[in-house]
Amino acid sequence: MEKYEYAVLGSFAVGQAIYGGQTMKTRNFTDALEGEIGKEKVCRVDTHNWKKSPVKLIINIRRALKSSKELVILPADRGIMIIPRAVLLINKRFGKKIRYVVIGGWLPNILKNNYKLQNTLKKLDRIYVETACMKRKMENMDFFNISVMPNFK
């Protein structure tokens, strides 16, 4: 039985005074989710500086998938090529729902000529983009798992 409703994988930069858009949205999204369903039902997995310890990140992703019903990922532009693929690979064993909350408006541009990444992201259960324009651009690339979640602060 799962201990958490959701595990949230993103750059929390725990113990650091980092206030960039990536970290702020990850923190704000998770705080709002915890406020809605209860802090005890959400597990946080910090990806800040994941390149320094990729094995530790893989272990933490596995633990998160094992102990939660669903996983929400918030990878940055540098993590987008690795994080979703790793999560999907590890999730083959667990079969959990994977949701991706996009931070910023850059994703459709990266996807335009990157068919490998398109195929990876199409396997996610849901992708939440910030604008209807982003949704249309991605639907034009045959994405059918897109919803709009406006940016919040």
Q: Please compute the radius of gyration using only Cα atoms.
A: 15 Å
User: Mean of residue pLDDT?
Assistant: 93
Structural class: alpha/beta
Strand content: 15-25%
Can you summarize the main beta sheet? 6 strands, parallel
The total strand number stands at 6
Order of helices and strands: EHEHEHEHHEHE
SS summary, helix count: 6
Task: Tell me about this structure.
With 153 residues, the chain is an alpha/beta fold. 40% of the residues lie in helices and 20% in strands. The chain is built from 6 helices and 6 strands, in the order βαβαβαβααβαβ. It has helices at residues 21-37, 54-67, 83-91, 107-111, 115-122, 132-139, and strands at residues 4-10, 42-46, 68-74, 97-101, 126-129, 146-148. Helix 2 (54-67) packs across helix 3 (83-91). It is globular, with a radius of gyration of 15 Å. The termini are far apart. The model has no long low-confidence stretch (mean pLDDT 93).
Layout of helices and strands:
Layout: E1 4-10, H1 21-37, E2 42-46, H2 54-67, E3 68-74, H3 83-91, E4 97-101, H4 107-111, H5 115-122, E5 126-129, H6 132-139, E6 146-148
Parallel strand pairs: 1-2, 1-3, 3-4, 4-5, 5-6
Helix pairs in contact: 2-3
Quick description:
This protein is α/β, with parallel strands linked by helices and 153 residues long. It is 40% helix and 20% strand.
Characteristic key phrases:
globular; 6 strands; alpha/beta; 40% helix; six-stranded parallel sheet; 153 residues
